[in-house]
Amino acid sequence: MSSEAMVGASSPLSKDELIAFIKSIILNENQQEMDPFYVLDLGALNPLFQTWTQNLPMVQPFYAVKCNPNPDFLRQMAALGAGFDCASRAEIESVLSLGVSPDRIIFASTCKPESHIKYAAKVGVNLATFDSIYELEKIKKLHPNCSLLIRIKAPQTSNSTKFGALPDEVKPLLEASKAANLQVIGVSFHIGSRSGINLNALEDAMASARTIFETAVQLGMPEMHVLNIGGGFKSGPNFTDEAASAVKVALQKYFPSQDGLTIMAEPGRFFAREPFTLVTNVIGKRVRGGIKEYWINDGIAGSMKFLQYDNVICTHLLADNGSSDNENNPTSKGVKTYDSSVFGPTCDATDMVLEGFQLPDMEVGDWLVFHNLGAYSSCLGSDFNGFKTSAIPTFLAHLDNKNSS
């Protein structure tokens, strides 16, 4: 790990420290006027990783790189001991470039371009998922030594049919893998959602995986020894009180004391959401029918698409030198707030960030800070309408270092 990424990474910044760091960036003469930016608090990762390992010590996290591929963030995840769920050659390259061993990577895409499979074979990424006979054929041709997990569509999940073998497809796929002399070493499923783990679906998926383990033995295949329980986990009390408990209960019910069983998961937002803060500038204002309307320089058409699926926590910073105090925080008691709407900068009519939201009276040039915005945010930025939200800089949140990454 680079020394820069590790500076200040031992513990999270307090709210006051974070705001002070944001002010320092706004005042930095090298920061272009009114540009949005992210702040990454690497220290916030430590308690999250500790929470995971304390509550699910038997489950190895393989971070879903797609959720947020920031290299400093990935480097810190690697230093903490995480594995990585990669879905493309580019994601594999980014992880390997950090010095991560290829045996800490799962190629967790059920439909992979042939050139990406060739690359995985070349660099030694030897674990991948599949859910169709056609994927088996590609792997047989291009990476026959790759160990495989059969991805199943778990019961009680969404109606999407994009991922996962259906129940009546599993046995034929196992038979085909055996005939092709491909090694299927376990089962993968994903039952999470943006709102968190569906606990009933988790138990049903575990039951299905247990049946598939037994089916493989009945077919004369080597006993499976890897169970991948996917993602969908969110940090917070519900993880400790509900999700982690449900995982342990289901494992005890369907995989009690199975020797040599490796259990893995593919969490993304659990780790990425909290360490990142997005800072945006108010670039426009209108008052209409008692509603205060604002425009900011990032939005749903940019890197804030998934804001609609997360709880919104905002902090208002005044324009003058980035000053702020508690009375300017829209969540503070006793501050007069107004029904407000916040739009992104583009000409897309659906580019609305907030609607019917309580905010204090803001002016053009003020700053609106969005906390907990690291999951599926910056990675979705685009250059639509000429607003380059794909290139929003990220600053490492240690008070003695203002260099962007």
From TrEMBL:
Coiled-coil ranges (or none): none
GO annotations of cellular component type: cytoplasm
GO BP term (any one): putrescine biosynthetic process from arginine, via ornithine
EC number: 4.1.1.17
SUPFAM superfamilies named in the record: Alanine racemase C-terminal domain-like, PLP-binding barrel
CDD domains: PLPDE_III_ODC (cd00622)
Presence of the UniProt keyword Lyase in the record: yes
Keyword Lyase applies: yes
Residues of the Orn/DAP/Arg decarboxylase 2 N-terminal domain: 45-272
Pathways per UniProt: Amine and polyamine biosynthesis; putrescine biosynthesis via L-ornithine pathway; putrescine from L-ornithine: step 1/1
GO molecular function, one term: ornithine decarboxylase activity
N6-(pyridoxal phosphate)lysine PTM positions: 66
Keywords: Lyase, Pyridoxal phosphate
Cofactor: pyridoxal 5'-phosphate
Catalytic residues, chain numbering: 347 (proton donor)
All copies of domain Orn/DAP/Arg decarboxylase 2 C-terminal, residue ranges: 38-374
Top-level EC class: lyase
PROSITE patterns: ODR_DC_2_1
Recorded superkingdom: Eukaryota
Reaction equation(s) it catalyzes: L-ornithine + H(+) = putrescine + CO2
Subunit relationships: Homodimer. Only the dimer is catalytically active, as the active sites are constructed of residues from both monomers.
Family statement: Belongs to the Orn/Lys/Arg decarboxylase class-II family.
Protein name, UniProt field: ornithine decarboxylase
Organism: Corchorus capsularis
